[in-house]
Amino acid sequence: MILPDIIQLLPDNIANQIAAGEVIQRPASAVKELLENAVDAGANEIRLIVNDAGKALIQVIDNGKGMSETDARMAFERHATSKIKSIDDLFTIKTMGFRGEALASIAAVAQVELKSKREEDETGVFIEIENSQVIKQEPIAAPTGTSIAMKNLFFNVPARRNFLKSNAAELRHIVDEFIRVAMSFPEIFFSFTSNGQQVFYLEKGSMKQRLVQILGNNYVSKLVPVQEQTDYLNIYGFVGKPETAKKTRGDQYFFVNNRFIKSAYLNHAVMNAFDEMIAKDSFPMYCLFIDLDPSQLDINVHPTKQEIKFEDEKIVYAFVQSAVKHALAQFSITPTLDFELDASIQSLDAVTKPFTEEKKSSASSSSLYNTFTKKHQSHFIESKSELKHWKSFYDKPQESNIETQIDAPALLNTNIKLQTDNLVQLHNSFILIQTEKGYYLVHQQNAHERILYERFAMAVDGKPIATQQSLFPATMELATADAVLLNELIPDMHQLGYQLEPFGSNTFVIQGTPADISGGGSQGAVSEKNAIEKMLEQYKHFSSDLKFSKREKLLRSLALQQSVKAGTALSAKEMKVLVEDLFNCQIPNSTANGKPTYLEFKKDELDKLFGR
Ligand code: ADP
Ligand code: MG
Question: Residue 266 belongs to what domain range?
Fold first, then answer.
């Protein structure tokens, strides 16, 4: 028997849908592509309209150069681009896009309506596309520029549509993308409307004005300009004054040739520059633009990837660090700045001299350069070994905790007796509990975090925490992205005892706070305002963690935020309550984030240590 051949070419529409999956993963990716196309078209006014977090409609209207009738049709073909013609163009690319994939992808997974007109044309063109096919085309009257509306994203790929998150979550991704584009182009007017409501209205202005418009008024007098120019690269932008540093990574942006990137490496450079000026566990705000010759970049990475490869990463690191140090020093943010180190980096050839090939090789072989990079490397090794140490410190006791984990809920009533009356607090951070077999060392903050986490989990599960009405409701104004986020969390916040209502654009009123959480009701709405802001910071910190639901993130953030901190003196009664609450928890031995709440020390092992 002869078996038939089995390989077939995929039909175009399926091939397109598969390819589209790479470029358009969610509404926010389409928003990014459309905004970037508008920027590339030279527009100075760009409007974004979304309905249903982009699931129903994403529309971008620009006043850029528009398209001819033929170009408008061509634009939706795969690998159709006006931005590169030969492979060499790749190395001088100045536009945001160049792969010619975005519009083709969008046309494969949404119903698209395009209107476009060039300055020089009498009439514009209207095109309607579905399943990558043009189903309607006609001349229309239109202003110069382009409007692309994409409706019912993934209408023909239900599996993908079902994979989308809640509207609130998708909207937040859109806000993130919008902000990244709007930040890079302060000379362009941007507006953003969601379900008919204005989310952003960003007038043309300076970089500083744009940042304040986006990040909030509290940055007005808190931005330090960064500006260094050399032949090799330019850095400009702003860093927040040290006092604006937050407890969690929040407003940190790098752009390379106006493209938003994520770089742990360059982030490290900025953190190093801030060095002693901010607390070890806090994060400075920065928004830094690095412009360099595109040939020094590997731009040919995946379109949705935010990583970037530099030809010489170490030099960029040195620039970033020295530029930020210099900026902070110039504005004499702190008298304790390490001028010696600063001066040595400043005098790096790479920083002071025009950049040539020759200079480049001499710079990288100079001893200063080596000291610098070595220092940097040792830092990495240092932090790695710290991590190892940290792990081994916890690994062992956790093993022995397996036993206590099983026993724990029964601890108080049965076999192991805890002495909860004469507890001792050490360093205002640990509580020592004698047991029959030895002693426990409880970490008060971790323990409290566990207790609160379980209490909050019960609250959102249907046993709401009572609210204590505030005598003096406080209002709270947030940056737009934070307001979008908080709106998303309000229903759960109600369950948790927060009576919190939206009150006009980006403002909320706190009318009541949880009654039975210490630090809640008693302190009233004003300090809760602070607490909610911090909770949002914390929440954003968890946000990149996709494996958690928004509710889980909220519970963890609140528990972390509201726990009694290490360093707080506790009364005998407070210690007793804390310890008893801990061992009444479902899982008393670690926080929701996996940190141990207590360590067990066994008497017989202690005896052995003493040679007994
Ligand atoms: P790329 O941006 O990588 O070239 P796209 O699929 O995003 O690929 O767009 C294809 C082409 O369509 C672009 O190269 C450009 O010529 C044209 N185009 C897309 N959007 C616009 C717009 N808003 N205004 C004018 N031309 C546009
Ligand atoms: Mg594009």
Answer: 208-330
